[in-house]
Design a protein that fits this description.
Shape: globular
Oligomer: single chain
Number of domains: 1
Distance between the termini: 28 Å
Order of helices and strands: EHHEEEHE
Low-confidence stretches: none
Radius of gyration: 13 Å
Structural class: alpha+beta
Length: about 100
């Protein structure tokens, strides 16, 4: 495997005990990860890796998605947001509508 050019992290609210709690998990972030992974593959974005994370501590804006190396944090992400964010990524842009930190 080559080093990915982009890495997308999705908060799944896991705590140190491994138990999923919190807003992102309650808003079905694990299903969002599946959708995101499928979309990345369907779009042929072979240089993008998708991973889950523990709690990112921005619960009030969850589900949270972070894209590196840009370091852009997206909030209130759902399938529609994923589509817009990936569209922007393909065009070398940022989906400003969902940005909570950059």
């Amino acid at each position: 495997m080559e080093k990915p050019k982009k890495h997308i992290f999705v908060c799944c609210s896991f705590r140190t005990s491994g138990e999923p709690k919190g807003v992102c998990n309650k808003k079905d972030a694990p299903a969002l990860v599946q959708y995101l992974d499928t979309e990345v593959n369907d779009r042929g974005m072979n240089d993008v890796m998708v991973s889950t994370t523990g709690c990112l501590k921005v619960c009030e804006k969850g589900p949270i998605m972070v894209v590196y190396p840009e370091g852009v944090w997206y909030g209130n992400v759902d399938e529609g947001a994923v589509d817009e964010i990936l569209d922007a990524m393909e065009n070398g842009e940022i989906a400003e509508k969902f940005v909570i930190m950059k």
